[in-house]
Design brief:
This protein has 20 helices and seven strands. It has 420 residues and is α/β, with parallel strands linked by helices. The strands form two sheets. A five-stranded parallel sheet has the order 2-3-4-1-5, with helices on both faces. A two-stranded parallel ribbon has the order 6-7. β3 (93-98), α6 and β4 form a beta-alpha-beta unit. α15 runs antiparallel to α16 (285-301). The protein is elongated, with a radius of gyration of 31 Å. It starts with a helix and ends with a helix.
Length: 420
């Protein structure tokens, strides 16, 4: 069996690396490492197919250092012991740790002393944000270097390289301009995805000029890095909520579509409900209620038909007036409660002890309820809720609030009870 195209034409020097110019161009850090013949432990993070493992291998090759690979998920202690023994024989060894964010504490404890003394030069590779996913003990011993998505111009260079490389063995196929553009668009900055697609096309259409329609025939959809634990997944969710908040229905529908293609109903449900209450809230309670009903119905229907229901809800929320007043009010109240736990006034307690009947809360006097002081004395003048008056509904709430403020609240229950 042949090795995959991406492996057959993998670069062997920094000059062959496509993209990541901020790391490998003249005077960039990794170029300087090779020129100075010095290397240190690093963590490469960024989207898949951007050259993280390739660059790590090239560095070891350029510096003629022995290289081993270790997978943080599937690798075990026995493999590490073998690596350590080899590293001591060589004096120093580059170890590429794939899925480095999955490195558990036992493996870290074994690796860290060897990283400390330089026996192991660890180059970790991950698609996750290392500031959130990498254990501080590992992170503090490594330089963090970000890999960027491959831009279209560099993706075109990669395709040209694949077609002309002596080891590519693509059967003499060629790409039309519209096919190149389509592959670049579908690849989403992932060179490996582009190479895999090109190889499939070469196998299916040997010696042919591949056109746009051919590309679409042999790939179902665009490459989306939508691992539920990956950054792209959370970025899509973030873009989804921010687009609704920013009243851009087209952008909101696009991010919803990405989540639908990943069939991530749980995240869609949670984000829609949070967005409805957080960003629309009191500006349009009816839209919030409709969203709750839509989410429930979408779960019953399931994909693919659920996409129709969800799309309707997204447009409704995106074009609705917005108000964060409810969200801001409860957060302000929580902040205050965390700072001070003032006691509830005696007359508001569930079962006040030793209190005269005339001083107790009157359940039978609704005409007085709005005249009582409900906050502790220390907070009696505080206002958590600040109305946002950009909708008819909340304007009415604000008007009601202003009317209520005209009545001075009192804790003199007995005196208020005597009022008729």
């Amino acid at each position: 069996m042949k090795q995959p195209l991406a492996f057959r034409i993998r670069p062997s020097s920094l000059d062959d690396i496509i993209g990541q110019t901020h790391l490998v161009s003249k005077n960039a850090l990794l170029r300087r490492c090779v020129e100075e013949r010095r290397l240190f432990s690093m963590i490469f993070f960024g989207p898949p197919g951007t050259g993280k493992t390739t660059v790590a291998s090239v560095l070891a090759n350029e510096l003629t250092l022995p290289l081993r690979k270790f997978n943080a998920v599937t690798g075990n202690k026995k493999e590490l012991d073998t690596i350590f023994a080899e590293a001591k024989l060589y004096g120093s060894m580059v170890v590429i740790v794939d899925e480095v964010h999955r490195l558990n504490k036992d493996k870290q404890d074994l690796l860290l002393p060897h990283i400390e003394d330089g026996t192991i030069i660890m180059i970790g590779a991950t698609t996750s944000n290392p500031y959130f996913s990498i254990n501080p003990a590992v992170r503090s011993r490594c330089q963090l270097l970000e890999f960027k998505r491959i831009e279209e111009a560099d993706m075109r260079k990669a395709l040209d390289r694949a077609l002309s490389h002596p080891n590519s063995d693509l059967g003499g196929c060629t790409l039309s301009e519209d096919a190149i553009k389509t592959i670049c668009d579908l690849s989403n900055g992932d060179i490996r995805f582009a190479y895999n697609l090109l190889e499939i096309l070469a196998i299916a259409l040997p010696g042919a000029e591949i056109k746009r329609e051919d590309v679409h025939r042999y790939t179902r959809q665009a490459n989306m890095a939508m691992d539920h634990d990956g950054d792209d997944h959370y970025d899509a969710l973030s873009g989804f909520q921010k687009s609704i908040r920013g009243s851009d229905p087209d952008a909101a529908l696009y991010y919803l579509a990405r989540l639908i293609l990943a069939e991530d109903m749980d995240s869609i449900e949670r984000r829609l409900l949070v967005t409805a209450y957080e960003d629309i809230g009191l500006a349009n309670p009816a839209a919030v209620a409709r969203t709750v009903n839509t989410v429930d119905a979408a779960k019953r229907v399931g994909f693919p038909e659920a996409s129709i229901l969800l799309g309707t809800a997204v447009i409704d929320l995106a074009l609705s007036p917005k108000s964060k007043s409810g969200c801001l009010a409860i957060h302000a109240a929580i902040d205050q409660a965390q700072q001070h736990a003032y006691p509830v006034p005696d007359y508001l307690r569930l079962t006040p002890v030793g209190m005269k009947d005339e001083d107790k809360y009157p359940y039978d006097r609704p005409d007085l309820w709005h005249k009582f002081q409900y906050l502790p004395d220390a907070l009696k003048s505080i206002r958590f809720y600040q109305p946002n008056t950009n909708s008819v509904y909340e304007k009415q709430l604000a008007s009601n609030l202003e009317e209520l403020k005209k009545t001075k609240r009192s804790k003199e229950i007995a005196t208020l009870k005597r009022q008729k």
